[in-house]
Prior knowledge:
Blueprint: H1 3-9, H2 22-28, E1 34-36, E2 44-48, H3 49-52, E3 70-74, E4 82-86, E5 89-90, E6 94-98, E7 101-103, E8 121-128, E9 142-148, E10 157-164, E11 169-180, E12 183-193, E13 210-223, E14 227-243, E15 250-267, E16 274-291, E17 294-312, E18 317-336, E19 339-361, E20 365-376, E21 380-394, E22 397-409, E23 425-427, E24 435-450, E25 453-466, E26 468-471, E27 477-482, E28 488-502, E29 505-520, E30 524-527, E31 534-544, E32 549-558, E33 587-598, E34 601-608, E35 643-652
Parallel strand pairs: 6-9, 23-27
Antiparallel strand pairs: 1-2, 2-8, 3-4, 4-5, 6-7, 8-9, 10-11, 10-35, 11-12, 12-13, 13-14, 14-15, 15-16, 16-17, 17-18, 18-19, 19-20, 20-21, 21-22, 22-24, 24-25, 25-28, 26-27, 28-29, 29-30, 29-31, 31-32, 32-33, 33-34, 34-35
Amino acid sequence: MGAQGLAQVDTTGIYGERTDSLEAAVFTSRTNANYLSKGKELRTEVISSAGLMKMACCTLAESFENSASVTVGYADATTGARQIRLLGLSGIYTQMLDENRPVMRGITAPYALSYTPGPWLESIQVGKGSPSVVNGAESITGSINLEYQKPTNEKPLFLNASVMNDTKTDFNVSSSLQVADNLYTILLGHADGNFRTFDTNGDGFADDPSLLNVNVSNRWLWYSPEVQAHWGVRYIHDKRQGGQMEGPWKSAITNNLANAYFKVGRSIRGDGSSSIAIVADYTLQQTASTFGLNLYNARQHSVFANLICRNAFSDSHILTVGINTTVDWLGEEILGGGQSVEGSRQTLAQIAPYAEYTFQQGETLSVIAGVSATVIPRHGFYPAPRLTLKYQPVEPLVFRLNGGRGVRFSHPIADNIGILSTGKTILGDLTQRVLDDAWTFGGNVTYYFTENVYLSLDYFQTRFVSAYLTDRESANTISFYSLDGHNAWSQNIQADFSIEPVDRLSLTLTGRYTDARVWQPSSEVRELPLTPRFKAVFNAQYKLGANRWIFDFTASLTGSSRVYDFMKELKDEEGMLLYPNGRTPVYPLLYAQVTRRFRGFDIYLGGENLTGSMQMHPIVDAKTPFADTFDAASVWGPLMGARFYLGFRLNIWK
């Protein structure tokens, strides 16, 4: 059966421009590393497999260093938990998708960026704004969709391993097999860890925790001319220990996650114009963790189900209707910050009938109008309308407009896991599930001189109606509070320029400006703390000798951000104020990598943070870790200096 037929049967393709069909796999195989998709209605940055190879890229957390759209930082200075920002706001407002199934939700979110190995991925698609209503209404600032290596890959064996000078070691393996005429499978394995920990800034705490992460997955594909089915299972074990090198303050975290999914699509008409699909996903996450004297244990069962019906009345008119539901059964035990919560059990549910109409006038005009009629028990009815417009008056020029509403449950501890790495008193209800409710709207204009040379400018704004936030300005307390209709917003302007001045040389320059403000009960509306005003990223790649040698270089400059009020009085060993103007310093980062390619085998050598930029005092009152002024969660910059790595990739093709 031809690739086109498979794409028609893959009914889950109504999510958008999918890459889990054989036809779309050709789309993601282009050699460009990072690029703005010309065909997608939503402003979408694609990080291809080539882009994922530009750095060590051990996990998803290291996959965004070439991107100014997404900023990655640390949640605290002891656990290694990473967090992202999109449109200037925390990654909790960004919907994470595993081939268009919602993942990394609730208690899974704090450590989930380390659960996705970069070598497993075929591409990452970063969409700004309000995406399709098909996946529910939880997306506020955008979505990040992860496309994995496919069972149909013609790679019986792929191996990847790397080691850093700080003993961080990473190993990946995958094998895709054709089991029968219409049945394919892929096995994926990953392990990473370190053998030693270091204290380069001399504060007595390990810069990075000792850790062991084991991750295995098995994915399947079966198809016939009318039906296509995908299913798979996954298991993750993650254990990490950090804290004082010799003292009594320790952090110990163990996470276990199991996942199973199934999706089947059937074509109702022979030409593929009408189809129906069912998607089901189940995840069990368990976490047991201590942070000094603080404790957080939790278990979460999550179920996502989606029924999708699509009908194309003509080439110009497409209607998609369906209903999806998300249910989380959550149990938590919390001890710390002067609070004790035992036996908390909650059921968080959403049910959302939806409808989405798409109008297409050739390549010139696309309009997608949808609404998710989200019903949340004990909270009420939250309609989430969304509209996307793409206009291409001439071949090289593309205009996009987008806007819509997003609604999600807040998770006080999981959304702010770093607060447990403090000795501060926590004020507020840690089991309250206030709905984060916000509108995001914006636009983008891109001019393509050629397919790989373009200039792009976009603007997005997010405004909150309600949210559950933290006030961390005090030296010894952390307060949770509801926004209750007060102002909180973020505005983002970003410009992207990509050019190939000579053959085999590609250059990309991106700049972003952020203005994020939030209302606080103690001080009215002010700048969102630890949120950089600007970020610029420059990337260059040069290839020699029929791509046998590949040279990659990335430089970024991160702007200053407002520090918390209590940080304004912090001093260094010599009695000098660390933040004399109440802001963090501007800092640069440099990355470089050289790859030598042989037939089916690559070897690469690289370095990260070659400038050695570090936040030298990431832990407040490190010498008194059990005091109420101890704070290891006010992190704004890199925690480790320059690191170097060596690795290889082995591909055995059919």
